[in-house]
Structure formats: structure tokens, C-alpha cells
Amino acid sequence: MEKRINTPLTEEKVLGLKAGDNILLSGTIYSARDAAHKRLIDLINEGKELPFNIEGEIIYYVGPSPAKPGEVIGSAGPTTSYRIDPYTKALLDLGLKGMIGKGARSEEVIEAIKINKSIYFGAIGGAAALIAKSIVKSEIIAYEDLGSEAIRKMEVKDLPLIVVIDSKGNNLYKIGQEAYLNTVK
């Protein structure tokens, strides 16, 4: 069963999601990759304001390709999330509620997800062109000099995701692996 979720995320919405849930996400999300995350953390460390209010928001780890004429955005597949792990806890502590990427997360990030009642969604790697069709609006709001890694404010409609790590720390990668290993015993 697919669940339809609209942004911004609230604690109530997050607590209602479980690892393995299929989601169709609509609303505003933000894009940021490694270089942009480093700049966000630098701002936090300097006591400066972030370029957008992070509370209740979702960051998609993506560096989209340039848009073809007449299109909103180019291919927009997820970036491997562990590269963002060093920056994640600080953003979750400031109110970030969701992240979208691919791959496993560190134990530190999983613990921060639990403490902050946040969520980690997986997007389908290799489906960048398909994912881009769910992005109906995109504008660069910070760090244009980073090119594809600039921070974008994006509007999405029915972006297909799966809950990988829920607010209780249940991890689909571990659950799936354990279920598989139990079938081959």
C-alpha cells in the first residue's frame, strides 16, 4: 500500500511511517549534496542564519543534470547518503525532519534520526529520469557557484520513495537482509 504524504513533515506524520512503507511525496523539498552541506554546517558553526528554514523540511541528496529546453530539471537521481553523514546530526538537531538518498547510514545518523523523530527515505538509484518527472518546479536558492550541487527549492508531486529508516531506528536494509537470511537457512 502506498501512503501519500505532503510536506512539511510533522512529528505526527513521521511517527506514522514505518520502514518499508511506500510513499508518494508531494510538496516542497530542498536539494543539497556534500559541498552545500559543508557550507550549511559552516554557517551553523559561525552562528549565522541558514539560507532556508530547515524546521520540518526534507533535504534530497541530489545534484541534478541541466534541464533540457522546456523541462523543469534534468535527471535527478539520489546521491549515496553516507557521504552526507558527517553533516547530518547537526541539521537534524535544528529541526530537519526528512532526508532522501540511497544507501546505508551510519549508526550516529540512525541514533540522531531516533532522537529527533526524523526519517530517511530511499529513492530509486538508476531511475533519475523517472524521478525528475515528479519534480514540477525547481529554483536555485543558494550557492549557485556549486552548479549541480547548488541548493534548490523544489516542488514535487507524487515522488516515489520508500521509508528506509523510520523514527524508531528500524532499518529496511537490516530487516530485508535478516528476512532473506531466514529464508536460506
TrEMBL record:
Gene Ontology MF: a single term: hydro-lyase activity
Keyword Lyase annotated: yes
Pfam families, alphabetized: Fumerase_C
Domain of life: Bacteria
Sequence intervals crossing the membrane: none
InterPro entries (alphabetical): Fe-S_hydro-lyase_TtdB-typ_cat, Fe-S_hydroAse_TtdB_cat_sf
Domain Fe-S hydro-lyase tartrate dehydratase beta-type catalytic: 5-174
Keywords: Lyase
Entry-linked Gene3D superfamilies: Fe-S hydro-lyase, tartrate dehydratase beta-type, catalytic domain
Family that this chain belongs to: Belongs to the class-I fumarase family.
Protein name per its UniProtKB record: Fumarate hydratase subunit beta
